[in-house]
Inverse folding.
């Protein structure tokens, strides 16, 4: 029987109302470390818990399959074997049955198919979180045991010795001990290997051009005009105009809007629990906040005007629904009329967004998150700072987007290929001994790109 059929993920309900999962091995029983960790992150959004649960299932399948690799069934588990196993995991994910060595042998047992780079990045991130936290807990327990404050099972190294000394055990018993020993080793010592450059996703991202992740500049204003409802029009304008995350936009309350100053704030729900106390546990559990360094958003035009011009009409429409909450954006689903829109699934939200793109005749297939990429790329490339000067520094864009680190901002605030190409054209200018300055070439390219957008917004023919 393939190992992937030996592992069963079982869903159960926590007292908080959220779903959690346990992992059952058909021969070894309940894998307690799995559910203990998932319960420790139960404050995370449900979709995060679901994703990590599935990612860790793949990792546990990989670890437990080790005992089924015939050439390793009598191995002495030491740091070398442990590092070989953990560092084989990226190849196991990326190459599946085409992998060589230990990764390939385990892949043949689990019948895993090769997975994409971006998926592997997410899985490895989930595994890092699990191993770091498990290692921390393991170290704390050993420290308490050393002081005779608790009585816990023998250390993982003792489990390894048991496998080597009890040679009269049958094969099933030896495999069980080997599996548990390897897991114990992974938990106690695995965290030092996940920082290795080798514990990285293999291959390249399917979308390495971060600039292309942004919603097309020449179409971004049109997407507001093709929204089916005023709610969606305002949502798209808010996302494109401030660069805030989809979850932050959908959780904006009426009190977070300063209409006179034409400003919107995004505030962590954990900082004001009393505001949400009257809502159901189901609603509160779906609130999420990834983190911003500042509460204030910074609106760019023309989206600021589009949003605030339509806001009074949106609020009037909302008042007719007799909402029992203060969230600005509400569901229009017949099954859940007037519920907060943040409770809608990502699929529902993005299907509506893709519908607007289809009505525009666009061939691309962008998600709402592309509007955040648009904001970062626009601020980096096209915000006018003075004569012949466009584009903010990465550190400034970092402040605007609320990122804690500049590294996060770099994913969004990427250089426009048009500007890069214009910059390279200076080489030809120099060869031809032209008097044209580099600044003129770049300015001309920016001007052309801005004119495209202006045509879309104002409906005029540009005089180029």
């Amino acid at each position: 029987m393939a190992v992937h059929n030996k592992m069963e993920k079982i869903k159960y309900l926590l007292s908080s109302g959220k779903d959690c999962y346990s992992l059952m091995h058909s021969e070894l029983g309940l894998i307690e470390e799995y559910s203990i960790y998932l319960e420790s992150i139960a404050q995370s959004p449900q979709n995060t818990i679901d994703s990590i649960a599935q990612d860790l299932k793949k990792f546990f399948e990989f670890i437990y399959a080790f005992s089924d690799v015939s050439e390793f069934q009598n191995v002495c588990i030491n740091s070398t074997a442990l590092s070989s196993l953990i560092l084989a995991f990226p190849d196991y994910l990326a190459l599946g049955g085409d992998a060589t060595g230990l990764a390939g042998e385990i892949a043949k047992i689990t019948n895993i198919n090769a997975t994409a780079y971006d998926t592997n990045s997410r899985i490895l991130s989930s595994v890092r979180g699990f191993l770091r936290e498990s290692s921390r807990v393991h170290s704390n327990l050993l420290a308490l045991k050393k002081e005779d404050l608790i009585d816990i099972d023998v250390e993982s190294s003792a489990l390894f010795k048991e496998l080597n000394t009890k040679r009269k055990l049958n094969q099933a018993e030896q495999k069980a001990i080997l599996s548990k020993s390897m897991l114990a080793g992974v938990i106690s010592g695995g965290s030092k290997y996940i920082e290795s450059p080798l514990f990285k996703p293999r291959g390249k991202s399917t979308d390495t051009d971060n600039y292309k992740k942004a919603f097309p500049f020449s179409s971004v204003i049109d997407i507001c005009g093709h929204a089916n409802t005023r709610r969606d029009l305002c949502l798209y304008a808010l996302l494109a105009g401030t660069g805030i995350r989809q979850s932050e936009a959908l959780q904006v309350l009426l009190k977070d809007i300063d209409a006179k100053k034409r400003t919107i704030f995004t505030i962590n729900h954990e900082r004001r629990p009393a505001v949400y106390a009257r809502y159901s546990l189901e609603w509160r559990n779906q609130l999420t906040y990834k983190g911003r360094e500042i509460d204030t958003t910074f609106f760019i035009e023309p989206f600021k005007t589009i949003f605030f011009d339509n806001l009074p009409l949106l609020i009037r429409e909302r008042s007719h629904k007799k909402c029992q909450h203060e969230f600005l954006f509400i569901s229009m689903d017949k099954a859940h009329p007037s519920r907060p829109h943040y409770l809608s699934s990502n699929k529902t939200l993005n299907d509506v967004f893709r519908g607007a793109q289809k009505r525009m005749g666009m061939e691309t297939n962008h998600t709402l998150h592309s509007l955040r990429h648009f904001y970062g790329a626009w601020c980096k490339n096209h915000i006018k700072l003075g004569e012949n000067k466009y584009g903010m520094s990465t550190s400034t864009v970092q402040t605007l987007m609320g990122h804690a680190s500049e590294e996060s901002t770099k994913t969004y605030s990427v250089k426009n290929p048009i500007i890069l190409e214009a910059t390279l054209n200076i080489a030809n200018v120099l060869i031809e001994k032209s008097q044209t300055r580099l600044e003129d070439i770049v300015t001309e390219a920016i001007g052309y790109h801005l004119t495209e957008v202006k045509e879309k917004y104002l409906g005029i023919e540009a005089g180029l």
